[in-house]
Amino acid sequence: MTLTTVPDLIRAASAAAKDLAEQVGAVKLPVVADTVETALPASQSASAAATLGTAWKARVDSLASQVDTHATGLKTAAEAYSSQDGALARDFRAVP
Q1: CB 53 within 8 Å of CB 34
Q2: pLDDT value of residue 15
Q3: Quick one: pLDDT at residue 84?
Q4: Is the CB of residue 17 less than 8 Å from the CB of residue 67?
């Protein structure tokens, strides 16, 4: 079995994941909950909507952070593959 890595494709995946993290982080789900809270002040629904908005924000922030961490890992992997490939190429050229 042969494993082939293409660092440029891994870098592209990293950039796409970074972009996704930014987009996810920009999602404002609590705005929907705020609308319910405003439309039905002092109701059980308003209280539940506020709690839901807080929970949604925490989940969205967590997801954005996790995707960003994944993007960073992909970039690090691409750099490692490139570095190792370069070192191996130099080693092969050094063989008489």
Answers
A1: yes
A2: 97
A3: 86
A4: yes
Q: Which residue has the higher pLDDT, 91 or 22?
A: 22
pTM strictly above 0.85: no
* d(C-alpha 34, C-alpha 88), whole Å: 57
User: Which candidate, 83, 59, 63, 82, places its Cα nearest to that of 71?
Assistant: 63
d(CA 35, CA 42): 13
Domains and CATH numbers, the chain: 7-94 (1.10.287)
Which amino acid is present at 44?
Q
CA–CA distance, 72 with 14 (Å, rounded to integer): 7
Cα–Cα distance measured from residue 96 to residue 93, given in angstroms and rounded to the nearest whole number: 8
